[in-house]
Amino acid sequence: MDTIDILNKEFFTQDFVEEQPSAEMLNRYKDIARNYARMENAVAVLSDLRTNVSYIYYGSFSRMLGIDKCGDEGKVSSIWEKEIFKLIHPDDLAGKHLQELYFFHFIKRQPKRKRTDYYLTSKLRMKSGTNNYIPVLHRMFYVSVPFNDALWLALCLYSPLLFDTSAKCLIINSANGQMTELDKQNSTSILSVREKQVLNLIDKGLTSKKIAETLSISINTVSRHRQEILGKLQVKNSIEACRVAKDLKLI
Asked: Do 74 and 173 have their domain in common?
């Protein structure tokens, strides 16, 4: 199962309640996406995870990408904007999907009132109209369903990378400026080798005492690894840690 398959499973198996967000509520977020495209000249994609539909708004940056749709708006019957994905360097596209999966789990672990504080920002290479790869800033926001904890909308923005940074991908808390750097695009580096060993043994049902004996380490060290794993995967317990790690192909 590749990352898109995992994301589809995570997105579409959420518990969307029967009560649907109103058209007025959706239009409010469509206006936000439209204004990002206008004010930042970005390409903005608003994806509805409940109905599997995307709304695309083309700012002036679309011309640089060779998309002759500046000022246009579009709707596609998928949350995957293939017209844009085909412009992203293949290595960066694979990393982008892994980062979004990690960010999805990160946001799901946050209190609902805090979720809008966070967004994901990363650097991509995208093919321009002259067939050269140019640096692009990608930003992503999730919006929850008003009635429960499911994530309803995903807003992706593509714009020129004006200021380069050493970090390839950051989760930013816009309320306080705190930044969390994700490991490099290979998600397997999220956990250390020892942490993966501990988590594999947890997944097999071993107690901390048995894990300590198996790895020839102390119980206190096992406990420390457990806490590090929960923190890195942004989960509350070992059961969730094993599930998320499998989704991220860490174990």
From this structure: yes
CB atoms within 10 A of CB 68: 10
Name residue, tokens 């994530």.
151
> What is the number of structural domains in the chain?
2
User: What pairing do the DSSP bridges indicate for beta strands 73-76 and 118-127?
Assistant: unpaired
Asked if 149 and 133 count as a contact pair (C-beta separation under 8 A), the reply is: no
| DSSP 3-state of 143 | strand
φ, ψ of residue 91 in degrees (nearest 5): -65, -40
Residue partners of 87: CB distance under 8 A and separation at least 6: 65, 66, 126, 127
pLDDT tens for 63-113 read 999 998 999 999 999 999 999 999 999 989 988 988 898 899 889 888 999
For residue 251, the Cα-to-chain-centroid distance in whole angstroms is 20
What is the distance between the alpha carbons of residues 244 and 238, in angstroms, rounded to a whole number?
Answer: 10
Domain boundary (181, 198, 223) is at 181
- The verdict on 71 and 131 lying in the same domain is yes
Q: How far apart are CA 149 and CA 15, in angstroms?
A: 8
Q: What is the pTM of this model?
A: 0.78
Q: Which residue range(s) make up the domain with 223?
A: 190-247
Separation of alpha carbons 224 and 236, rounded Å: 15
d(CA 213, CA 199): 15
